[in-house]
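Input record (Table S2, row 615):
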Amino acid sequence: MTFLELVRKNLFRKKLRTILTTVAIFIAFAIFGVLATFQNALNSGVDTAGADRLIVTNRINFTLPMPIAYVSRVGAVEGVKTVAHANWFGGYYQEPRNFLVALAIDPVTYLDIYPEYVLPKSQREAFLNESGSIIVGEALAKQYKWKVGDRIPVKSNIFRQRNGSDTWDFTLAGIMTPGAQGVDVNFVAFHYKYFAETRSFGGDTIGWLIVKTAGSKDNDRIARTVDAMFANSPFETETKTEQAFNKAFTEQLGDLGFIITAIVGAAFATILLIVGNTMMLTVRERTNEIAVLKTIGFTSRRIFQLVLGESMLLAMIGGLLGLVAAFLMSVVLQNVFAGRIGVMSFTPGTALIGLGLMASLGFLTGILPALRAMRLDIVTALGRK
Amino acid sequence: MSEALIVLKDIGKHYTRSKQTIRIFEHLDMIVPREDFVAIMGPSGSGKTTLLNLLGGIDRPSSGEIQFDGKRVDDLSESRLAAFRAGSIGFIFQFYNLMPMLTAAQNVELPLLLTKLGPKARRERVKTALEIVSLSDRARHRPSELSGGQQQRVAIARAIVSDPKLLLCDEPTGDLDRETAGEILSMLQTLNRDLGKTIVMVTHDPEAARFAKRTLHLDKGRFSEKDLSA
Ligand SMILES: Nc1ncnc2c1ncn2[C@@H]1O[C@H](COP(=O)(O)OP(=O)(O)OP(=O)(O)O)[C@@H](O)[C@H]1O
Ligand SMILES: [Mg+2]
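Output record (adenosine-5'-triphosphate complex):
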């Protein structure tokens, strides 16, 4: 028998009580893990944003269009390396509930600016060469069982073709994979030119510009220059770093971060009380035993470790099971929500925060009972029978 | 090396509860020689348990001095006192005080967790201790599966497993029938005679006291020695 075994035997002495407490901890950690996964998804755009990329949008609202002439004018600003542009298509596949993030882009510049959207060389070439082609993220391809060469009808809830149809037929030229952890490729993209020529309204306008700068130190200056250039025109602009843009975009959904923190906080406050109370009860029941252990020579420090070790072990067991469950759920959710809200990944960072929470829970619920046990007076405790 | 294992010099002990002071001992002296087996008798409330607590280093005197093996122990720090208890003293209680979730062998092993002994040496020690109390066949039983007498034997094995010099027993047979009590007392006698353990035993039962070498009577905080061997 080791000291740790003694801790474990103490913990599982009242099996039902320990199991119920473990379940409470398990639920709290599962909630934490799943919500953190959602938050990671929402933040994935912010975390993977390029430091040398700026987004230029219409100042009034980022959904309003801008003239295509802006591309060459922004491209002429000193320190700008590349300018790409994109339009929001409002796409869906077959039925409106199969919502797609669909973008009309300038293929060459767009793929140049976003090297993290990885395409095999041949597929990239096929896409660049054929104006009616489309590229899609790998999860979408998997979900809808699309293969390279397939005809893919994409419908729009905004645009119509000149012939009145709401459906554009594309040929699948390539399947994108993420070039790094957290990169979101859950979208489809096709040629702007083809789109502009076939749509019934909107003419030669674009949705937003993506600017690659010579380096992040130039960002501020370029942003100011661009916005000044179009000031007092019918299409004023607002230029932000990609990171700031993605963050603002995420915040459009409401302050989800706060809501998530509040829910997790409430769950933890509850288990803190439940587990703390259980530990207190446990130590009170064992008053006599603790006095006996002290009598046979266990130091106050050992007794402290024995009790704190028990609450730590309890938090670890419940917490780890909860995180494992959250991880499994994140895999399922990634498939269910494919493409709709960023990359649903259970990151090492989440696991690390989880471990921190376990340690805090174990410590906070064990510290008072442990101190109480440590300070227990042998004579008083043994005499109380 | 002195003949005395324990020396109590001019011990005073009082408790203060809600402004009232209860004096238990004043100017108490006592010497326990090595390999002694002394029974302590006396009316309830006379201070028998308090005396054992002082001898065992789980309580401190209000005044006076306690020596164990020639060294002063009443002024040791909390942690040294714990180490002293672990190394030099075995405790046997009236109600056995075993850990309910541990087997007999694990209960006996408990004090060895405080030593540097490896798993193998510990197993050997536990085996020997259980053999001494003739309970080898119950090593894997939990306290709830043992009779009172068997539980007390496990407690004795736990008390001797780290080979202490002194055994302190507070009414070790108080909860047992006469026959079982006789077995336990013979066992203590054997430990005293064959293994040289010094034993101080508190008891209410004159029959039990007969197993000791001598009996001290405690009354109102003072000793009066009576020779019962006559
Ligand atoms: N922690 C304490 N606080 C206050 N008074 C105490 C404490 N411990 C013991 N006493 C008092 O000291 C006196 C002696 O108690 P002790 O337990 O030593 O008696 P005892 O001889 O063992 O009695 P019994 O035969 O009933 O076990 C009693 O009056 C008791 O009330
Ligand atoms: Mg007593």
